[in-house]
Amino acid sequence: MKKLVLFLTCTILTISLYSFKVDAVNFHREGDNDRYFVGMMYFDTWIHADGKTWQNNISPVTQSPITKTQNYSFNFPERRVKSVTVTAYNGKPEEYIESSRNELWAVFARSSATNVLPTTSNQNGIGTGEISFTVTVNANLNAERPLEITDEATQAIHENVEGYRTYLPILIKVELEAESNAPKTSIMSTFNNYTINRQAPKNQHTFWMYHNSDSSDAFIVEIRSQKLTSGGWLEREIHPLREIIFDSNRKLNIIGFNSDGTPIDVTVWRKGKERTDLSDTFKNQFFRGYTRQQNDGTYYYYQHYQSTADGELYPTSQLLNYVPNANILDYLSRFGLHNLEDYEYRIMNP
User: What's the pLDDT at 10?
Assistant: First the structure.
């Protein structure tokens, strides 16, 4: 029976590497770019059924040295991470733990080690909005009063077995890159090519879409325009679905199409990503279909646009400042142009 008890007490203490994921809202904010998060790593110790022997000879009574490792990942939508640093946390400033954990330092103070030495490794995602890294802590179990966790045992234990937890508090500082003035959302419109190219047929139009993304985002676009019939009236024409892809090198995409009049309406679906602000009622009733299957993937409704007049919105130099130069030159070349000055003159003087 004693052998069984010893086995159970040993298996209780298996220490594993696990991940901790934090959303961007669970931080203490300082200024525009600095975010602080208090991480409460911990080390559990157990005394065996004889009431004297500590598992693996690691004891908070003798202030045993220990090493603990944990993975973290943070997500900052529409921002990019510049750097991550990790230091020991001793309860000051106290608002750091209150903001990031909604807890008080007094809950952990007496159960925390005071000589925590953290290091980081395996940093991934610097320069993007989603980062991950590993924190390794070296410390001595010198807490004034380790937290008793005997009742947290996940299996039957001997009455003499006791468990104690020592917290290893760390402070994670995430510095974000300065926020760009570039638009954070997509912008789209249509215009008649004749406005900027007097040689173009008057029924030739362009749909354009700006999307600010450093990762790759794929969209499909359905354009519905007007076609003049032999009888002299307009009827709706549905154009084939077209895929456009955005990444750090391409912020602006265009699609050419013909239309003999207005209105022109455009529906855009995004691959693999749903908007979070849409109600279930909208999803169930959107008249163009909330989802589309294309290219072996699911595309979710992203935006609907309708144009009732030519040239409601053009990409001007103010927007093109945030578009890579090669992308701009490719856009201008579609209209036989080679510089922004000539382009802007034409759209301002149709």
Answer: 37
**Residues 133, 244 within the same domain:** no
State the sign of the Cα–Cα–Cα–Cα dihedral 313, 319, 324, 326. Answer: positive
For residue 313, CA distances in Å to 129, 192, 268, 319 come to 30, 11, 17, 11
At 13, is the pLDDT very low, low, confident or very high (cuts 50, 70, 90)? very low
Write down the residue that tokens 């985002």 correspond to: 217
**Same domain for 131 and 102?**
yes
Tokens standing for residue 302: 């992203």
Report if pTM > 0.90.
no
- Look at residue 19 and tell me whether its pLDDT is greater than 70: no
- Both 21 and 136 in a single domain? yes
- Lookup: tokens for 303: 């935006």
Q: Do residues 17 and 63 share a domain?
A: yes
